[in-house]
Design goal:
Blueprint (H helix, E strand, L loop, with lengths): L1 E3 L2 E3 L3 E16 H7 L6 E2 L1 E2 L2 E14 L4 E11 L8 E9 L2 H11 L3 E3 L1 E7 L2 E8 L2 E8 L3 E2 L7 E9 L2 E18 L2 E5 L6 H5 L8 E12 L3 E2 L1
Length: 226
């Protein structure tokens, strides 16, 4: 159990209802290694390129309350251990203070408060993230075809730095109402400094594929020191 802003948070944290959209990209491997410098992690590399994703989630019902979130993530693993593949999230803005504090204190997620607007655009969705009134990033997905989910109950390792040490959190996803397509995402980077890491990876560029999840349940376990 944890205490966050005077409230108790029991583990695992449950997300009972959310929806999400994400896009996967090939990225500059050298820039990815710089982002991971000092983390005892390395990027997963395919044909000489790293893999990153941009995702946004609308949390509707969960233990941390309702909020919006944007995630900029890299696919990573611990050196020499192919079984350790997971994600490292360099930037994770949210629009509510309680989840911001909980994410930082419990797991070490790099959350900060931002203006995050998620809207429906025809068959797709659009997310705009602003800091200090300036655009950082806008991502728009363009729908897809219904796809059976193959990831129900799958546990993903989410790596973070907590108290200066590498930690791993078991993140379990149960998606339904999934739509996917090749390509299918538009990305705009703004002039705020928070966009520079994404720009260093070669974004904006054409996405490999996109997905939209109409109903998403998740659990987050306690962070475990590696």
């Amino acid at each position: 159990m944890h205490s966050v802003l005077g409230e108790k948070v029991t583990m695992p944290v449950e997300i009972r209802d959310a929806d999400a959209a994400s896009a996967m990209f090939l990225a500059d491997a050298g820039a990815a290694r710089k982002i991971l410098s000092g983390m005892a992690l390395e990027p997963v590399v395919v044909a000489g390129r790293a893999i990153c994703s941009l995702a946004f989630v609308r949390y509707i019902d969960g233990d941390l309350g309702p909020y919006h979130e944007f995630a900029f993530a890299l696919l990573v693993r611990r050196p020499g251990d192919r079984s350790s593949t997971g994600v490292y999230i360099p930037w994770l803005p949210v629009n509510q203070s309680f989840t911001c504090a909980a994410g930082r204190e419990i797991w070490g997620f790099p959350k900060e408060i931002a203006d995050i607007r998620i809207t429906r655009c025809g068959p797709g969705k659009r997310c705009e993230v602003r800091l200090d009134g300036r655009l950082v990033v806008a991502v728009q997905t363009h729908g897809g075809i219904p796809t059976p989910s193959r990831f129900g109950g799958a546990s993903i390792a989410a790596y973070t730095r907590l108290d200066g040490k590498l930690h791993s959190t078991a993140w379990v996803m149960n998606p339904s109402d999934v739509r996917m397509r090749l390509g299918g995402a538009s990305v705009e980077l703004g002039d705020h400094p928070a966009a520079e890491q994404m720009r260093s990876l070669g974004l904006p560029r054409r996405s490999l594929f996109t997905s939209q999840i109409g109903a998403l349940r998740m659990t987050f376990e306690d962070a475990r020191e590696i």
